[in-house]
Specification:
Length: 150
């Protein structure tokens, strides 16, 4: 249908740009994702890309084991994507099984705005706590490894 024609047109434009310029491209996958995914998901993709780029530049500047840090970052990102996908499938099963739109909600709809703020705060605290734990553990393991090399 129309989507296939748009996809073919985007590929033709991308290949033309590839041959005529070195810096400009029109990635068909990005265009397809932008057309297919809702805005709430599409917005998180560039945010994740910026965070990934920042993390990679930080890992490249790291004095010790920059490549290992990059690999761990990729492993973390992959785990988040897979975990979210598994949760989505399980949650869809729960919704289908119960017939309710929000089967796991603890409070009513009147608490929606507050629940989002609490959820964001808990998420940020959890990420910070896990980051700090990992950082301290890494420093301890590196110190132990450095001590055993002497």
């Amino acid at each position: 249908g129309l989507g296939a024609l748009i996809g073919i047109a985007v590929i033709v434009v991308d290949e033309t740009l590839k041959r005529s310029t070195s810096s400009m491209r029109l990635p068909p996958l990005a265009v397809g994702m932008g057309m297919y995914l809702p805005m709430s998901l599409t917005l998180t993709i560039p945010i994740g890309a910026f965070i990934g780029r920042y993390y990679d530049s930080w890992a490249s500047r790291a004095a010790v084991d920059g490549d290992r840090k990059k690999r761990l970052g990729i492993l973390l990102a992959t785990g988040l994507i897979v975990g979210e996908s598994i949760y989505g499938v399980i949650f869809a099963g729960i919704v289908a099984g119960t017939g309710k739109e929000a089967p796991l909600s603890i409070v009513g709809d009147g608490y929606g705005d507050g629940a989002q703020l609490v959820g964001i705060a808990v998420f940020v605290a959890l990420v910070f706590g896990l980051y700090r734990y990992t950082q301290l553990r890494s420093e301890r393991d590196f110190a132990a490894m450095s001590g055993s090399l002497k």
